[in-house]
């Protein structure tokens, strides 16, 4: 199966270790949560950048 899809045996075993006990619904929910987490990290990074820019602008005005 792994060779058919171009995936190493090690990867298959790692996935089985992570997801072997999960039901398909659980795997889908996990992927949704991972996507949401990535989006939140992106928003946080953008907010931190905006704060840094505002601090820089405020410092230049003084």
Give structural notes.
The protein has helices spanning 2-5, 9-19, 24-61. The protein is mostly helical and 62 residues long. The protein has a domain at 23-62. The radius of gyration is 21 Å and the shape is elongated. The mean pLDDT is 88.
List keywords for this structure.
mainly alpha; elongated; 62 residues
Instruction: Report the strand count.
Output: 0
Largest sheet: none
Helix content: over 70%
Distance between the termini: 66 Å
Secondary-structure element order, N to C = HHH
Structural class: mainly alpha
Would you identify the regions where 5 or more consecutive residues have pLDDT less than 50?
A: none
Number of helices: 3
Mean pLDDT: 88
Query: Radius of gyration from the CA trace?
Result: 21 Å
* Rough outline: elongated
Strand content: under 5%
């Amino acid at each position: 199966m792994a060779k058919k899809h171009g995936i190493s045996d090690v990867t298959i075993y790692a996935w089985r270790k992570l997801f072997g006990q999960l039901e398909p619904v659980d795997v889908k929910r996990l992927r949704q949560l991972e996507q949401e987490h990535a989006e939140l990290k992106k928003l946080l990074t953008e907010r931190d950048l905006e704060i840094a820019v505002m601090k820089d602008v405020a410092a230049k005005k003084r």
